[in-house]
């Protein structure tokens, strides 16, 4: 049995709790023993990206302690996973936290990556009727190298037709504070992303990161467009 420490990112905790619960549903169905440390908070990425490295390191130090236990660390976010893997080493280099940082980084996996690369699963028995397209979230694609795994999982969802959109790898325009500081550019990028999805005739746009979904769904709602965003954990937990 695989031991899994559940990591719940800030956006999931505050806005999409059902995504976290659906992730647990899938992991437990696949035989994992899932534990949750209620003391966990943020991984520190927002502060780091805003240039507050000292504050980010303080948050990251807590993250290391919270996830120092046995087993894999799995979260529904390529963005957070990529940050921990690629930037903790820089923050804790030549410090007392360097060894623990390396240990935690080596156990950190994005949800779909854990399914396909560790559990070696590409079919969880999910059912969802309709046509869907997949959005490559920047964190998952560019920082974790996740590309084909989510697509394999979705292709095996009964009743779901997967079609590729032209701008699948293009950023949706969220980028954390980027969406606030550069709102016109951010909205233009969201428009491009949504239009590419609409051009496929898809009913759903699916991704690994709820931050992208929040941004894209906001644009969709404002413009009353006939498409819906879904986190892949919600898709994989459907129909059973």
Topology of helices and strands:
Elements lengths: L2 E4 L3 H5 L2 H13 L3 E3 L9 H5 L3 H14 L5 E4 L2 H14 L6 H10 E3 H8 L8 E8 L3 H7 L3 H8 L2 E5 L15 H4 L1 H17 L4 E4 L2 H13 L5 E4 H5 L4
Parallel strand pairs: 1-2, 1-3, 3-4, 5-6, 5-7, 7-8
* Largest β sheet strand count, sense and barrel closure: 4 strands, parallel
**Rg, nearest Å:** 18 Å
- For the biggest β-sheet, the strand order reads 2-1-3-4
Number of helices: 13
Structurally, the number of domains stands at 2
Can you give the helix content as a percent range? 40-55%
Uncertain regions: pLDDT < 50 for 5+ in a row? Answer: none
Give the overall shape.
globular
Q: Care to count the β-strands?
A: 8
The H-and-E topology, N to C, reads as EHHEHHEHHEHEHHEHHEHEH
Structure description:
By secondary structure, the chain is of the alpha/beta class. It has 13 helices and eight strands. Strands 2-1-3-4 form a four-stranded parallel β-sheet, sandwiched between helices. A four-stranded parallel β-sheet has the order 6-5-7-8, sandwiched between helices. β7, α12 and β8 form a beta-alpha-beta unit. α5 crosses α8. The longest helix is centred in the C-terminal third of the chain and has 17 residues. The model has no long low-confidence stretch (mean pLDDT 96).
